[in-house]
Amino acid sequence: MANLIQELIAKRAAKEVEDGQIINLGIGIPTLVAKYVENENVHFHTENGMLGVVGIEEEDIDPNLVNAGKMPVGEAVGSSFFNSAESFGMIRGGHVDVAILGVLQVDEQSRIANWAVPGKNIIGVGGAMDLLVGARKVIVTMTHTSKDGKSKILKDCTYPITSTRSVDTIITDLAVFNYINGELHLVELMPGVTLEQVEKNTEARFVNVLK
Predict the structure, then answer these.
(1) CATH of the domain at 42
(2) pLDDT digits over 15-66, tens only?
(3) What are the transmembrane regions (predicted)?
(4) How far apart are CA 144 and CA 175, in angstroms?
(5) What does the pLDDT look like over 116-129, one tens digit per residue?
(6) Radius of gyration, CA atoms only, the chain
(7) Residue tagged active-site, from 38, 47, 183, 203
(8) 196 in catalytic set
(9) Which of 17, 21, 176, 177 pairs as cysteine with 97 (C-beta 3.0–4.6 A)?
(10) Closest to 133 measured CA to CA, from 103, 159, 96
(11) Segments forming the whole domain that contains residue 88
(12) What are the distances in angstroms from CA 135 to CA 43, 53, 99?
């Protein structure tokens, strides 16, 4: 079940969505974004083969209808179904406007690590590598620090990176960063957060454009 911090991040990420876009939502925090999107003309895509994903009430769950994270979903009016190869063809062909991904770490070059933790057995890369290459814009959502309080926005990722493609926007529970001209730019503080908190909890260098 999502907590308040995850909901806060998802709600902020929803503001990045524009009318008419095709959006792919990754596993974790991104799955919460759809309920905060106010534009009606937005089409949610899942790489296991569906365009027109919507939320669903518990009493209406179809166990055979799930997203890439194996979570139950509903189908919008006019939704379409296709096989996995066609779905990845959409991604690789540049037909997904925005990918919103959950990540483990981000580095100074805005490259992400989201698929492997050395020594641990986790779900694997899934469609993240393809989305990083094929999506026109990539937004990542994450908590700013790990459970032990260490920064997750690092000079260099300590986990294997997912792709050499830099993501465009990073949204955490503390701040929002855009990657512009090879640098991370701090563009927004989350409600109640100070610049000092962000500086203390961010290992990577960034440009403060709030001044």
Answers:
(1) 3.40.1080.10
(2) 999 999 999 999 889 989 988 998 889 999 999 999 999 888 777 788 889 8
(3) none
(4) 8
(5) 777 776 666 678 99
(6) 17
(7) 47
(8) no
(9) 21
(10) 96
(11) 4-208
(12) 14, 18, 6
